Amino acid sequence: MLAERELLRWTFVNLSPAIGLSGVAVAAISGTLEAKNNRMDIFGAIVVAIATALGGGTVRDLLLQHDPVFWIADDAPLIVTGVIAIITFIVASSPGASFQRALLVADAAALALFTVLGTEKALNAHAAPLVALVMGVITGVVGGILRDILCNQIPFVLRRDIYATASIAGAALFLLLQRLRLSEEVASLSCICVVFTIRIAVLRWKLTLPNSLKAPPLPLTDDTNGL
Predict the structure, then answer these.
(1) What integer pLDDT is reported at residue 105 of this predicted model?
(2) Range of the domain at 157
(3) Which of 15, 98, 121, 223 has the greatest count of CB atoms below 10 A from its CB?
(4) Quick check: is 152 in a domain?
(5) Would you give the DSSP letter of residue 208?
(6) What residues form DSSP beta bridges with 53?
(7) What is the DSSP letter of 128?
(8) pTM of this prediction?
């Protein structure tokens, strides 16, 4: 039993870089597709892809004072982002092609992967649980915010859409499972599944947060007859 547990942990640790690059790849896809929807050229698409894929992790590392930033220490994420952006731009340039659904699914996957990676990295840096949750959310949402700003869109996180809330739920679940001393691999996979499932459910059933906790105002009535 111990040998099986050690094998599972070894497998997960060795898959972590692949999970990180997967997050970078799907984020680059979402950034490129959004740029293409806004009629940017290939250079603009690459810039948006880089901001989307690397922005959240960069802010996280700066806040955690992790020197150097992850894509400077290892240029693999930068290379993957550039290659994926070019391929996606070429594919999305096909006549009559529509990739709106692919953009939303890629964004959901990136949010899920980046949330768990940010939370886990903060814990490994000995951050407090609340700080780790914030780092997970920052890693998950900042790239999308930068993408939307560059594409002159209102960021998802500022709309009624359930976006940052999904990231918070996933990071909180990760911390809870860690607190219950479940294995790191179980906590990580659970976080990824929860965030991704919430986002897909939001897209499928158009779920939103209420924009006000107050009851709607009563209609005005004409009281002049009583005067």
Answers:
(1) 94
(2) 18-209
(3) 121
(4) yes
(5) B
(6) none
(7) -
(8) 0.87
